[in-house]
Amino acid sequence: MTSPCWISSVFVYGIASTGDLLQLCAASAWLTANIAALVNAKG
Q: Which of 4, 9, 34, 43 has its CA 20 to 30 A from that of 25?
């Protein structure tokens, strides 16, 4: 999963604009979707 790396990069480079915040939201949503898919696949 690359979404944790994407989330980490937002914090490494800093949240300086609205675009950075949107990037963080998108990466978090992607991570959440990946986790939900894994839970549904196992259950």
A: 43
Nearest to 27 by CA among 3, 5, 1: 3
Alpha-carbon torsion (14, 16, 19, 22), positive or negative: positive
Integer Cα distance of 7 and 26 in angstroms = 9
CA angle 27, 39, 31 (to 5 degrees): 5
* pLDDT tens digits along 1-42: 688 998 999 999 999 999 999 999 999 999 999 999 999 987
DSSP letter, residue 21: H
